[in-house]
Amino acid sequence: MPLLFAKSLSRWLLALAALLPASAGAQELRVHPTPFSVWLDFQVLATPDPPKVAMPVWLESLQSDSVEGAAGEVVKTTFRLRFRPVGGLNRELLLRLIFDDVKGALPMVTGWSETGGRIFEHGPLGNGLNLPNSAALALRMEGVNYIDISVPGDGTNVRGAFLTSLRRAETRYGVDFAAPAAVTDAFGNLPASLPAANDSWLLGRVKATIDAGVVKLAPREAVSEIWEFELAEPPLVAVLTFEILNADPLAPPDVFVNDQPLGPAALHTPDLADPAYQGVLRPLDRGVRFRYAGWLPVQKAIPGSLLRAGLNKILLKLPADSGPVAVRSLELQLKSQWQNLDSQLSAP
Hints:
mainly beta, five-stranded antiparallel beta sheet
């Protein structure tokens, strides 16, 4: 009976798919134009027969150079991006550098004039966590003729760079609240969280930083990371937020509160067009898994009944099929009773 039902359902779906174009109208697949953006895969472009890349009019060339040590080993690699001024099209650029965050091989980004004057310098980028990472830089290009991306070693830990022209737009925000990010990410990634030094109260909500540092986690660890904190009284509901590096969207960390499992946390995933997604092929997997080379915001709602007055603890544990990650900026929001809380009695 289940097999017959499955066959009938398949025939019905096929019939529905055949009718949809006539009744609802078929959608066309259109390529999103990106004349003022480019993704430069340094490793692919370094192959003997690299594919041709359609460069924006403001990008003249990409070159790489290496410096050898006394023993013939490569001690420094530089990727040089040379620009031509094109009015306001490249007055400001967003540079997104994607790299393996290897200790002792952290990249630097510098901008130079044709006469050798240094216009800006950013880096070293990364934290030496030995995980895939990325950094987004908004660059003012007045007087800049070329940008150098320099890294100790042979440069194989620098995957590539995404560049796009920036356009200014007016925005509005509440004067009593924090200003929005100065630059909007091209793929919908949220700005980095900056934990506050002190707890804050707003309309019945208390926001408190649990840990502003960076902690690495690995699957199959005998002991996972535990954070302890004290509460004067339990809240009505709480929300845990943090950021995660090298996340697998299909294997987010599991959250435990006071030894009670709450299930996997919820990741904010950017547009799948983002070149920071890296495919991972493993022998026993049927498909391709993905990791995100960058920090992603994570949330998990916590029932107030699981928290208590006094000492509480939060544990993060990775699924067995996950890869290693790092987490940072753990923050807790606590919603409590206050005089203007909007609530209503619901029938059972």
